[in-house]
Amino acid sequence: MCPVDRDDDPPKNLKPADRGAATPLLADSSRVLVVGKSSINRIVVSKIVEKYGLKPISEPPEIAERSLAGIVPGAVILDGGPDNKDCDRLLSGIDALRRASGKALPCVILLTTRNGTPESLGLSSVVDAVVAKPITPEGLQSVIDRLIGRGHG
Q1: What are 78's strand-pairing partners?
Q2: Among 30, 76, 104, 129, which is most buried by a count of CB atoms within 10 Å?
Q3: Averaged over 72-81, what is the pLDDT?
Q4: Dihedral sign of CA atoms 77, 124, 62, 69 in order
Q5: Which SS3 state, helix, strand or coil, does residue 17 take?
Q6: What is the pLDDT of residues 47-71, one digit of tens each?
Q7: Across-strand partners of 111?
Q8: pLDDT score at 2
Q9: Would you say 16 and 89 are in contact if contact means Cβ atoms under 8 Å apart?
Q10: Three-state SS across the chain?
């Protein structure tokens, strides 16, 4: 037997923006990436997501950026922090995932200190919905239901 030349294997550890269409990943709508600098807020949001029957992956922004190179969650919940900018570094990667898949996945929910729509708050077009703090199970679940839907979980 002759060893097989594996030059056709997809490259490992790519950033979402570098992945392109050459190495597509399938979106897993049961997974929700919960991102924020505050571990307490990530835990609270993850518990709400679990109650909804979804599988949260809780990470700080620095690690979440790398995680998006390996998974495509059904949704990403970003805790924007006091100025809505704590997770800005992830937006280009999420946008690249959407372009590569040709779909609006993952859905992006921003947890914010201000009320309004993504447009009225001057947020990136990658943000699909905003939920004002303090986070309540009812408020977050209604947005998750609207964006992901119960039939996809």
Answers
A1: 35, 110
A2: 76
A3: 93
A4: positive
A5: helix
A6: 999 998 999 999 999 999 888 888 8
A7: 79, 131
A8: 43
A9: no
A10: CCCCCCCCCCCCCCCHHHHCCCCCCCEEEEEEEEECCCHHHHHHHHHHHHHCCCEEEEECHHHHHHHCCCCEEEEEEEECCCCCCCCHHHHHHHHHHHHHHCCCCCEEEEEECCCCCCCCCCCCCCCCEEEECCCCHHHHHHHHHHHCCHHHC
Which amino acid is it at 37?
Answer: K
Task: Look at strands 72-79 and 129-132 and give their pairing.
Answer: unpaired
Return the structure tokens found at 99. 């372009």
Give the integer Cα–Cα distance in Å for 31 and 28.
6
Per-residue pLDDT, 133: 92
CA torsion angle for 33, 145, 81, 55 (degrees, to 10)? -20
Rounded (10°) angle between helices 39-51 and 137-147: 60
Residue recorded with tokens 């609207």: 146
Token reading at 73:
């969650």
pLDDT digits (tens, 9 = 90+) for 89-147: 999 999 988 888 787 789 999 999 988 778 778 788 899 999 999 999 999 989 998 98
> Contact at 8 Å (CB) between 112 and 132?
yes
